[in-house]
Amino acid sequence: MSRESGLGNRESERPRDASIPDSPRPVPDWWSRYFDSQYLLEYEPIFDLAQDRREVARLIDLLGLPSGSRVLDVPCGQGRHAHLLAEAGYDVDGFDLSAELLRRANKRGTGRTLRYTRGDMRSLPARWSGRFDAIVNLFTSFGFFVQPSDDARVVAEWARVLKPGGRLMWHGGNRDGVMRRFLARDWWLTSDGTMVGHERSFDALSGVLTVRSTWRGRKNDGEREHRIRLYTATHLSELLARHGLVVEAAFDGWTTRSLTRRSGEMLLVARKDE
Q1: pTM of the predicted protein model
Q2: Residue 18 — left, alpha, or beta (φ > 0 → left; ψ -120 to 50 → alpha)?
Q3: Are the C-beta atoms of residues 241 and 247 closer than 8 Å to each other?
Q4: Rounded Cα–Cα distance for residues 109 and 118 (Å)
Q5: Is the previous residue joined to 75 through a cis bond, with omega within 30 degrees of 0?
Q6: Tell me, what DSSP letter sits at residue 274?
Q7: Domains of the chain
Q8: What is the dihedral of CA 83, 170, 252, 8, to 10 degrees?
Q9: What is the arrangement of strands in the sheet containing 221-229, beginning at the earlier edge strand?
Q10: If you write DSSP's letter for every residue of 20-48 in order, what string do you get?
Q11: Inter-residue contact 75 to 103 (CB < 8 Å)
């Protein structure tokens, strides 16, 4: 499940008189400070090692690459997938902007076949040109930037660092499916008793989903906002193709079923032109 799909329909669990405060002022570069310890607490209910292993098994099956192949996980977050890909025998680089998430990733372990680098995914290291057999972009980790041109810059960087014939695995929300089953509000409890609420709104013209988070716990309370541009499979496939990345398969999330307009998530498999 992607972070923008919601945590499920909890209508029966919700107090009917619950309310969420007025929205804080939007922060254009929300992504530069959002991915911290509060983010890890907020999404704790859907960070599950068993699910991570199932997802990596699916990636390995689709990649069909031999042991030792070079894989880039960008952005890699706290290393949920990068660590397991390295365990499976790949030579893995994780790349992320968040110092806190990279600290957590490094704490899980690094080694000769697992390294982490901090930076902005719009500008990957110059030395990585033509370096990777595969790139994975997972858990709705695309569409962060205010300008759509910045999303195109990210795709151009992916194309640059992939080898000819290299593969891209892209997983995230499917605009068609998310809008079909739009969940305006939900909330849940974390393991330490913090109540987390999400309130969502969508701008159909820009394609931007705004998510307002509010939390109330024994240790602290707070609220903040983040925004992400949702893509249809068609739009994203066209964007990838403009940079020489041709989508060869599209799945209903992590399943083996083909993508449909009802799919809330999509997993796209693209190949770089030879």
Answers
A1: 0.90
A2: beta
A3: yes
A4: 16
A5: yes
A6: -
A7: 45-174+232-272 (3.40.50.150)
A8: 70
A9: 185-189, 195-203, 208-216, 221-229
A10: -PPPPPP-TTTHHHHSSHHHHHHTGGG--
A11: no
The burial class, CB within 10 Å (0-12 / 13-18 / 19+), for 165 is exposed
CA distance 14 to 183: 13
Spatial separation of the C-alpha atoms in residues 174 and 4, rounded to whole Å: 10
- Does 83 have pLDDT greater than 50? yes
Phi, psi values for residue 82, rounded to 5°: -60, -45
Q: Using CA atoms, how far apart are residues 37 and 150, in angstroms rounded to an integer?
A: 26
Interstrand relation of 162-173 and 132-137 (parallel, antiparallel or unpaired):
parallel
Q: Are strands 91-96 and 114-118 parallel, antiparallel or unpaired?
A: parallel
Report yes or no: 72 and 129 within 8 Å, Cβ to Cβ: no
Q: Please return the burial class of 152, using the count of CB atoms within 10 Å of its CB with bins 0-12, 13-18 and 19+.
A: middle
Beta bridge partners of 156: none
- The residue-averaged pLDDT of 220-240 equals 97
What is the C-alpha to C-alpha distance for residues 227 and 27, in angstroms, rounded to an integer?
9
For residue 126, what are its two tokens?
Answer: 């110059």
What whole-number distance in Å separates Cα of residue 165 and Cα of residue 80?
A: 26
| pLDDT score, position 248 | 98
Supply 34's token pair.
């959002």
What are the φ and ψ backbone dihedral angles of 193, each rounded to 5 degrees? 90, 5
Q: Which residue has the higher pLDDT, 40 or 26?
A: 40
Per-residue model confidence (pLDDT) at position 134: 98
Q: How confident is the model at residue 5 (pLDDT cuts 50, 70, 90)?
A: low
